[in-house]
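User: Before I run my own analysis I want an independent prediction to cross-check against. Here's the chain; please return only the structure tokens and, at the end, one sentence I can use as a sanity check.
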Amino acid sequence: MLMRKWIQQFRALERPAQRLFLRSSVVLPLISISLRWRGFRKTKASLQHFLSVPFGSRNPDAEARAILTAQIVRAASHQGIGDPSCLVVSLALWWLLARQGIASELRVGFRKDGGTFEAHAWVECGGATLNEPEMNHRHFAAFDAALASLPPEPG
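Assistant: Structure tokens:
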């Protein structure tokens, strides 16, 4: 019964959204495997290598496409195999946006809660968080912000 409902929802999507869902469903586990075997830097570099659209080029309906892409990636992450981490979902969303010519920023942040170190990833587009409510990442310091606040190394 649940599968039938899912198929009906998928069929109700327009063709571009269906393709995006299928692409997300394939990319999410591939990114997960790559992160585990190759690490973050090599995974991100591989994703950048496979961009067919120049990174950060203009897309006329970028805001609407970005929101739709985030919704589709979120749905694919819930329907797929396993439970992808926030880093996997964020990398997939960042890459799929870039393939559409939509500039976005992958953010990775950290915090120390008691004695526990925690990390979190999210995607921003035009200053707005796409793949989660704003409140979820506010307690994390983005690495780029933390690094920018460090004093310069002595020369």
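Sanity check: The chain has one domain: 17-148.
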